[in-house]
């Protein structure tokens, strides 16, 4: 199960395999050995073919420095393998043992307040520290050498959810590494000073040894270029930490596949070495945890958004951890999947690009910081409804595996994403505005709700597969993107460029030419005379976090209609209120105005324009998306860009996604609600899960799903 060599990263990149990895993370070290054979028997009953082991067991693998002991896992693997289960081993570097942190406390991570982390949790070691990297290489080498000839070990996971607990580090080692990174990047201190704007606030340096980490509010903020390079360094250090392990695993046994399981995405630059080093990526999927954290669109939408965004980094993926029950640590707990919902969430992951899936976890722990993170079995070792649903998913996978493997997820409306520099550039100086991801979510969500095939795509991907490509307000515009977008439009595609795009350079400096810069101005046929900040559409004023300090301004009465400063524009025959940002757009002679501002000092000026390019078109949006604008923009795309939903009259609560190859199309239809739905506008085909023919009509019980192979 390895990716095709040298296949470029793309939202459509497949995993070159005919094996669907279905299984579970398992911790045989948490229970008495008398459980092991029964566990293996039950795993086979679920239809599992793989088990993940060892990601938190460094203290068992190396109980004393330089002394290795693999006996417990050798015995566990022997029992699992006797039941036909393949083994994924994990490098255990997320939890270094106490002997290491006690003898070498300098390897502990340091937070932004200068506090050194303590032993007793996880991810407490500094992955930028040369000594910790050395110990990580040693345990990886020892494990790889020990399991090299074990035929049951088929692949490896590196570490566990890198950067999830604390992505940043402010240690002396991190500062030293940052200085070396900067010297390699800029070569001369003069070049660095120019890139960081050293003549502002006397922040120039005379040598690389003088460089400091960009501490926030110490007491005032650091420059955007300085902060941007710090996060570039963190991403580079993360990639190098993983590469140490990957190189060892590849050298010892190149038949193994190697992946990493991403948790919360922070300071990982997927397209600058991290994903290229791996055979494929893995993403841990906890929809009800996402709902608890963000509460936007419900857990079904949160899962769709997360997985579509992840697929944009490198293509199809596996899910090493899929939520099966209550998820909990002492500071939070999630909702519990209702009967049938665990299966629906699993099939949603498969629908959006998963070519492997493991339910987390086999059974809950009886001790430690996750005693109520439930698994397929309960604490009393009795299999109940979650176990039964895992068995059902096993039957579902068996029914769809053959036509599924080798397919990609269809995307008609692509949204620009997966560019690390643009993700970070916004955070370095956000102006109180939504991030590009926040903006993109509004278009993605309305496409999800209406059943339009959508996804996240990098500008260097194969844009010809799309009908529409939307670029949210990407501050940094890189060489080569304009030509790729021009070719896409001239061939018949529709491009939409969002406000503020191209207004900073690669060093995070504001450009010195009229926005959106020479390349984008020539491409879009517009220049920007002025921009300004607006309140969100549902606010009377800028948010409290953006107000001056206490004592500078105190409102004495409710805002009047005049003081609200609502800026409106007319588009598609509807009067819409702008939010977050306005621009005064000056169109060129060959550029058509689709919408104009309709009030206040902006009245009559262009806000949305269109320039024809070959058989296609390019729109410029002189404001940010909003809950009002996103659906109207989609209406326009349906009328003017050949965009259509996968099925007509999609009921709220039904999620539809298509996976396809040149010779087949699989339509996933998933009921994300607890109540029954009847659909009357489905295309003809066969539901692979039930074996029944679908002739336009289908009834789905609560949380039920269908996978229709279309005729």
UniProtKB/TrEMBL annotation:
Domain named Beta-galactosidase trimerisation: residues: 441-642
Entry EC number(s): 3.2.1.23
Family annotation (Pfam families): Glyco_hydro_42, Glyco_hydro_42C, Glyco_hydro_42M
Domain (Glycoside hydrolase family 42 N-terminal): residue spans on this chain: 27-399
InterPro entries linked to this entry: Beta_galactosidase_C (IPR013739), Beta_galactosidase_Trimer (IPR013738), Class_I_gatase-like (IPR029062), GH (IPR017853), Glyco_hydro_42 (IPR003476), Glyco_hydro_42_N (IPR013529), Glyco_hydro_b (IPR013780)
CDD domains found in the cross-reference section: A4_beta-galactosidase_middle_domain
Keywords: Glycosidase, Hydrolase, Metal-binding, Zinc
Gene Ontology MF annotations: beta-galactosidase activity
Enzymatic reactions: Hydrolysis of terminal non-reducing beta-D-galactose residues in beta-D-galactosides
Residues of the Beta-galactosidase C-terminal domain: 653-710
Protein name: Beta-galactosidase
């Amino acid at each position: 199960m390895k990716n095709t060599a040298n296949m470029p990263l793309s939202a459509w990149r497949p995993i070159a395999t005919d094996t669907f990895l279905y299984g579970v993370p398992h911790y045989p070290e948490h229970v008495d050995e008398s459980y092991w054979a029964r566990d293996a028997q039950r795993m086979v009953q679920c239809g599992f073919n793989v088990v993940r082991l060892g990601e938190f067991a460094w203290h068992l693998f190396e109980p004393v420095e330089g002394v290795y002991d693999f006996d417990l896992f050798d015995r566990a693997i022997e029992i699992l393998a006797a039941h036909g289960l393949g083994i994924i081993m994990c490098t255990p570097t997320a939890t270094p043992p106490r002997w290491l942190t006690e003898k070498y406390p300098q390897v502990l991570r340091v937070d932004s307040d200068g506090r050194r982390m303590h032993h007793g949790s996880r991810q407490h070691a500094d992955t930028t520290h040369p000594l910790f990297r050395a110990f990580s290489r040693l345990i990886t080498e020892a494990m790889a050498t020990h399991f090299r000839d074990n035929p049951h070990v088929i692949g490896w996971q590196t570490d566990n959810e890198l950067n999830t607990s604390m992505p940043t580090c402010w240690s002396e080692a991190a500062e030293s590494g940052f200085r070396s990174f900067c010297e390699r990047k800029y070569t001369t201190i003069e070049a660095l000073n120019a890139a960081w704007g050293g003549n502002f606030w006397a922040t120039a340096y005379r040598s690389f040894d003088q460089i400091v980490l960009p501490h926030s509010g110490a007491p005032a903020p650091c420059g955007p270029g300085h902060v941007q390079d710090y996060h570039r360094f963190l991403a580079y250090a993360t990639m190098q930490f993983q590469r140490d392990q990957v190189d060892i695993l590849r050298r010892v046994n190149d038949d193994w596949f190697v992946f990493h399981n991403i948790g919360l995405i922070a300071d990982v630059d997927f397209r600058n070495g991290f994903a290229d080093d791996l055979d494929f990526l893995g993403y841990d999927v906890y929809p009800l945890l996402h709902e608890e954290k963000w509460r936007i669109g419900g857990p079904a939408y949160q899962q769709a958004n997360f997985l579509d965004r992840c697929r944009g980094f490198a293509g199809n993926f596996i899910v090493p951890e899929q939520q099966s029950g209550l998820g909990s640590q002492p500071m939070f707990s999630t909702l519990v999947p209702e009967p049938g919902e665990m299966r629906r969430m699993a099939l949603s992951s498969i629908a959006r690009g998963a070519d492997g899936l493991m339910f987390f976890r086999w059974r809950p722990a009886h001790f430690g910081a996750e005693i109520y993170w439930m698994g397929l079995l309960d604490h009393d070792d009795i299999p109940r409804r979650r176990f039964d649903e895992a068995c059902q998913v096993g039957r579902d996978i068996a029914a769809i595996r053959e036509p599924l493997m080798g397919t990609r997820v269809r995307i008609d409306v692509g949204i620009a994403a997966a560019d690390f520099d643009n993700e970070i550039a916004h955070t370095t100086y956000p102006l109180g505005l939504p991030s590009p991801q926040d903006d993109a979510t509004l278009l993605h969500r309305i496409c999800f709700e209406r059943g339009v095939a959508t996804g996240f795509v990098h500008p260097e991907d194969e844009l010809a597969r799309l009908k529409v490509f939307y670029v949210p307000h990407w501050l940094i515009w890189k060489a080569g993107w304009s030509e790729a977008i021009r070719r896409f439009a001239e061939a018949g595609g529709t491009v939409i460029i969002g406000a503020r795009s191209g207004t900073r350079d690669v060093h995070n400096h504001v450009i010195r030419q009229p926005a959106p810069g020479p390349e984008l101005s020539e491409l879009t046929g517009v220049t920007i005379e002025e921009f300004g900040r607006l309140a969100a559409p549902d606010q009377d004023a800028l948010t409290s976090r953006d107000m001056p300090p206490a004592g500078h301004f105190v409102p004495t009465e409710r805002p009047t209609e005049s003081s609200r400063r609502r800026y409106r524009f007319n588009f598609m025959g509807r009067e819409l209120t702008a939010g977050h940002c306005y621009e005064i757009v000056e169109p060129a002679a060959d550029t058509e105005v689709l919408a104009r501002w309709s009030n206040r000092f902006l009245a009559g000026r262009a806000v949305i324009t269109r320039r024809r390019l070959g058989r296609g078109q390019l729109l410029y949006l002189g404001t940010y998306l909003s809950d009002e604008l996103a659906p109207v923009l989609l209406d326009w795309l349906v009328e003017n860009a050949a965009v259509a939903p996968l099925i007509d009259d999609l009921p709220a609560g039904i999620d539809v996604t298509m996976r396809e190859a040149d010779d087949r199309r699989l339509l996933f239809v998933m009921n994300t609600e607890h109540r029954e739905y009847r659909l009357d506008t489905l295309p003809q085909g066969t539901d692979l899960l039930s074996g029944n023919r679908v002739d336009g009509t289908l009834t789905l019980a609560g949380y039920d799903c269908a996978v229709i192979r279309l005729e």
